[in-house]
Amino acid sequence: MQEVAEMTPYHLLGGDAVLRQLVDRFYDIMNSDPRASSIRAMHHEDSTLIRDKLFDFLSGWLGGPQRFMEKYGHPMLRARHMPFAISEDERDQWLMCMFQAMEEIPMENTLRDHLEDAFFRTADFMRNK
After folding, report:
1. Domain boundaries in the chain?
2. Region 15-125: CATH code
3. What is the DSSP string of 31-82?
4. What is the CB-side half-sphere exposure of residue 16 using CA atoms within 13 A?
5. Across residues 1-25, what is the average pLDDT?
6. 23 in Cβ contact with 51 (< 8 Å)
């Protein structure tokens, strides 16, 4: 019988290596696709720190190691995003980048559907205008 921990989205996705690939591809798309210009403008030129923060956050959010909590405390996503004007346009740009990055990661359709739904709900919750 498999451990419950192995059944988390983090483990089903492929753990650290695949998660890092997803995060890096997300930011590569955000940095290069003109359709993501509004969200790109919200970030520093050097995306190293934010890549690491998203990796750390997603690790715990997906059921893996709680790196973000260990380093920064509770994510408080809405509060952390409040300084940025986030409308449906910015939400949709973020999702476009994430969903495109996910297309390049092999995964089961049920996991992809679950992640797309979870990412949508979380991104939609960040809207503040």
Report:
1. 15-125
2. 1.10.490.10
3. HH-GGGHHHHTTS-S--HHHHHHHHHHHHHHTTS--HHHHHHSS--HHHHHT
4. 5
5. 85
6. yes
